[in-house]
Amino acid sequence: MNRKLIILLLFLPVFSFAQLDLKKTFKFSTFYGAINGGTSISSVDVFSVTNGLQTQTIETPYDYSISLGVRKIARFGYENKANTFYDGTESSFSDAATIGKVKGLEFLFEADYRRVQGVEYFDQHHFLRYVSANQWMAKVEYLKEGFADIEYFEASERYRFDVTKKLSINIGAAHRVAEPYGYDPLEEWKLSNGNLHYTYLALQEGYNVNVFEGEYYDPSGQVVATSSEIWEAVVIPQVLQDYTKRKKDELPAQWNHSLVLGFDYYQYSKTFWLHTWGSLMPYHYDDGNDYSYHKYEGKQWLDYSGGLIFGTKITKHLGTFVEGTYNKYWNRTWHDFKLGINYVIF
What we know:
The protein is built from 5 helices and 17 strands. It is of the alpha+beta class. It folds into 2 domains: 3-42 and 56-182 and 251-343, no CATH class; 185-250, no CATH class. The protein is globular and about 80 Å long. The termini are far apart. The mean pLDDT is 86.
C-alpha cells in the first residue's frame, strides 16, 4: 500500500473533527520554525606508519537542526513555558500521555532535519489526539526517530472508564504500520554450521574476485581490496549492510492489529505532582503474512509503553523530580529519562 495512502487513511477519521470549526481547532495553537546549531565532537588525529609516519585529522562537521512544526497541547499543572518562543528543541514527556490535560482535539506536527556527530537524520513526530467527554478517545501518531532507528504509524481507539477523578483505565484496539521488523535477509545465506556464505553473496551482488592476483572488484569494476583481510574487514561489512537495507526496502510495510489496555493517573498540587500512564498490547492478530512479526516471534508477545512524571517540594528550599518514558515495540526499545534535585537559597 502506498505510504501517502496509509497516512491519509490513518489521519482521515480525526481530521473530520477539525473540519467542524477550523478557527476553534487552531485557537491557542502555535506555528514555529527554528534553526539550531553548535559544535560537534572535537577533531581526532589518526596516525599511520605503513609508509612512514603519516597523520590524518578526522573532522566532524558542526551539529545543527532545522525544525518546522505546529502544536496545540494544553500544559499540565507541573509544566511551565520556559521560553518566550518555540525553538524546536522543546521536549515534554507528557506529550506521550494517552489522555491530555483537556477534552477535545490536540495535535503536534513536527519535522526535524538534523546532523548529529556527522550523521544526518530526518526525524518526524506527528499526532492527533481526541478525548471525548463521553468516555472514548482516539489517537493517530507517526514517529520516525533516526537515532533510535524506529519508524511506525499507529492509530488507536479506546473506551475510557474513570475509576476516580485521578485514575482512569482504558481498553481498545491499536493498528500499526511499520517495516517488517524481525525479518533477516541474511538468514537464507547462512550455512548449516551457522556461518555466512558472504563471498558468494557478494558475487551475486555484482562483486568480482581475481584469485590469481588477489584483487577484489566492486560492481563498477573498481579495485576495493588487495587482500582477503581488507576484503573481510572492510568490504564485506558494507556489502552486508547494503544488501540488508535493499532487501528490507523492497518489502511492503506490515500491518499489526493489537488489543490494547491502558491507564492514566494524574494528581497535582503546588508541592506534589504525579503523572503516570501506560499501554500494554498482549494480543496481536495473526493475518498469516509471510513477513509479519508473528512468523519471527513464533508466538504472541508483549508490546508496551509508559511514562512517569514525579515531583515534590520537600521543603521551601528543597525539591526533587523524576521524569521519563519507556517504549518496547517488536523487541525494539527506546527511552528517555531525567532526575535530579533542586535547592533554592534565599
